[in-house]
Amino acid sequence: MFEWELRSLLICAAAWLFIPMAQGGDSAMHPKVVTQAEVTVTGISARTNNAKEMTGDGVIGQMWGRFMQEGLLGKIPNKVDQSIVAVYTEYASDHDGDYTFVLGARVRPDAAVPEGMVAKKIPAGKFAVFTSDRGPAPKVVPELWMKINSLPKTAVGGDRTYRADYEVYDDRAGDPQNVVVDVYLGIR
Description:
The chain is of the alpha+beta class. Helix content is 23%, strand content 31%.
């Protein structure tokens, strides 16, 4: 049941990731701004865009299904932790263009890349970190993206860079009915 719910979660998250929302939003929502070093993520990837993801032809849900069914997290060597990381990177432009979606784990920079997988770098820089409410994954993750997308540009701590954004599914996401997920937005 966890696999199906996680797949549903990602389809919803992808749909809400870049949907333009009205300005305004939850005034109580304030991200934590962090500066982090470059991070390497190894996993499976596909090129997609939000228009495609909002149709039955989206690849992100299929990738989550494959990732869980094939136990790909366990096949990634030299992980720095057991979190699943979903990365949106190599943007053609902004939320309207194509991007590369990577589903995998953070690894040591020199880690070997298994056949059929890729390694992508999340560039060093500033990130606005948003944390979901606790609850069912298919509910709280899309709600978080809706809140993020409803914020004025100035509320995220800087302009988005569209170099890499990512979600972290750590030990707080083990129970799909009671998850907490962090979303990191790359900012200037």
